[in-house]
Amino acid sequence: MILLLTEGQMNDHKGAKLMFDALPGAAVMIGDKGYDSDEFRNALASKDIDTCIPPRKGRESMHFYCKTLYKQRHKIECMFGKLKDWRRVETRYDRCAHTYFSAICIAASVIFYLNQ
């Protein structure tokens, strides 16, 4: 597993572009409208990964996505919400990226342990 921590101002699409080569094998990639670009869709198609990404408003060619499958994305959003309950993670007290990333890993581990 490869994890990437980007700066807060970077949009999702640019961060995903950094991970093109490390994309894992999966059947479907579920993403929000921030990932809707032909470049990202083509990169996923080259790895035989289907997309479940709703098209951006005003897009010329509308792509189909499964709304039932897209509803599963709430699990990821709930995890981010739980991480933001940790004050240290939400306010990003740590200046160094490796220290901040360590705090995220500790928080995620505790959340996982408490939910079992």
Helix content: 40-55%
Q: Distance N terminus to C terminus?
A: 22 Å
Beta-strand share of residues: 5-15%
**Mean residue pLDDT:** 85
Order of helices and strands: HEHEHHHH
DSSP, total strands: 2
The major pleated sheet works out as: 2 strands, parallel
- Which stretches are low in confidence, meaning pLDDT under 50 for 5 or more residues running? none
Specify the number of helices.
Answer: 6
Protein structure class? mainly alpha
- Which outline best applies? globular
What does this structure look like?
- The structure is a single chain.
- The protein is mainly alpha-helical and 116 residues long.
- The chain has a domain at 1-66.
- The chain contains six helices and two strands.
- The chain has helices spanning 12-18, 38-46, 67-70, 74-83, 87-91, 97-114, and strands at 28-30, 50-52.
- Strands 1-2 form a two-stranded parallel ribbon.
- The longest helix has 18 residues, at 97-114.
- 5% of the residues are buried.
- The model has no long low-confidence stretch (mean pLDDT 85).
